[in-house]
Amino acid sequence: MLPIYALFFCFISFSFVTIILNVLYAWGLLSMPVEFIFFNDPYIPSLMMMPISFLTLLIINVRRHKLRICMDCKLERGDNYERGKLGSILDYESHFQLKNLLLLFGLLSVIIWTYYLIFYININQNARDWYVFTWLIIIMFILDELYFVARYYNLYLDLKDNDEIISPQELRDMTAKTYLRFYVVCGNNMYVDTHAVDARESHKEIIDTPFFTKRSVNGITVHEVKRIITRMTGVDHGELRFFFGRKSSDMSKHSLLRYFYFLDGTPDDYPELNAEGEWMKFDTIKHIYSTSPSRLSNITVADLTRLATIILTEKIFDEEGRRKSRIKSYNPTFNLDDVRKSELDFQDDKWLKISMFNSDTRMYGLKRWWRNITGRNTRKSRTWR
Fold first, then answer.
1. What is the pLDDT of residues 267-308, one digit of tens each?
2. What are φ and ψ of residue 2, in 5° steps?
3. 3-state SS of 211-226?
4. Cα separation of 297 and 211, whole Å?
5. pLDDT value at position 250?
6. Residue 265: left if φ>0, alpha if ψ -120 to 50, beta else—which one?
7. Which of 18, 104, 172, 377 has the fewest CB atoms in 10 Å of its CB?
8. What is the pLDDT of residues 319-375, one digit of tens each?
9. H helix or E strand, kind and range, residue 305
10. Could you report the per-residue pLDDT of 141-162, keeping only the tens digit for each?
11. Residue 277: what pLDDT?
């Protein structure tokens, strides 16, 4: 939706600027050539539309990671690490289309304004003028569309050759599945498989939890979840705690639930669990996450990002987004003991929203006032269990 979102703002910006300039011209407050006034003939809208759209796209491209549509998408569907290959394709292609539009509007702006300043004679429009100001734009956009038709047809063929295409009919016929992931924790250590196979690159070894499974049901009881992790670990006295879950946004009706399974004592008390792996200090995992996240599985990276963002945001800010400490250099840390003791609801996205908009945001007071006026400052949670 990002390219459509960007084009919508291009049209809004063009309409707004055009109306303001024409109103100022009608009031006699501004003098402009007749080609810019829609009351007159000839009126050449491309003279303003191309550069205004270019500037709008430039701003959107610079702020693309802070756009509301992108932030809402990440809150609702997760980031690229969670959405897998489809998420990576959509993310890359949406930004590629945005850059393509930026280049297209920029090139057309240069061509049209060069012709207008050097070759155009405002006494009478001829066929060449119509070609440059109108048909050239239409032809350029048609050629651009044909390029993307070829690009995505080739992408479709590549995915089909790799047997990565699922038809809508197959999706409708699929049985609902519930995927379960468990992070087994003891003290400040997590049990991981350092030789797990990357789903995207089968020849690559990554670090991941060895405790995951799926059930062909739509939903699962807590009692059944506890029975599953007890069987998978061989330890029946652990503390099971729900982390968070997310439903698939497509027609497959799948869901992925994450749980913590906290064990008392020390890792020495559990030298062997029923799954192949080893105990790793959480400080080591955090170091890997910070320096070389590609060594971790994509879902693990996404889950650690959510976990760290919620815990650290709650430590730094209050529920109104204001810093609890006046010392801006204060950078708290956390460990798995903090996670076990925490009473935070990690399914609630409240703290994720606060991490995106807080007192560290530039002009926070003014923006907060405007959100209160427009009714956008509500911190309603998007929770699901």
1. 999 988 999 999 999 999 999 999 999 899 988 999 999 999
2. -60, -45
3. CEEEECCCCCCHHHHH
4. 13
5. 56
6. left
7. 172
8. 888 888 877 777 889 999 999 999 999 998 899 989 888 888 888 788 787 777 766
9. helix 298-316
10. 999 999 999 999 999 999 888 8
11. 92
Q: 186 with 263: CB under 8 angstroms?
A: yes
Q: Can you give the pTM of this predicted structure?
A: 0.78
If we measure between CA atoms, which residue out of 84, 75, 379 comes closest to residue 246?
A: 75
CB 177 within 8 Å of CB 216: yes
**Nearest by Cα to 47 from 119, 122, 111, 124:** 111
- Are the C-beta atoms of 354 and 319 separated by less than 8 Å? yes
| Phi, psi for residue 182 in degrees, rounded to 5 | -120, 135
Per-residue DSSP letter, 355 = H
- The answer to whether 250 touches 239, Cβ cutoff 8 Å, is no
Burial of 152 (0-12, 13-18, 19+ CB in 10 A): exposed
Distance of CA 273 to the CA centre of its chain: 36
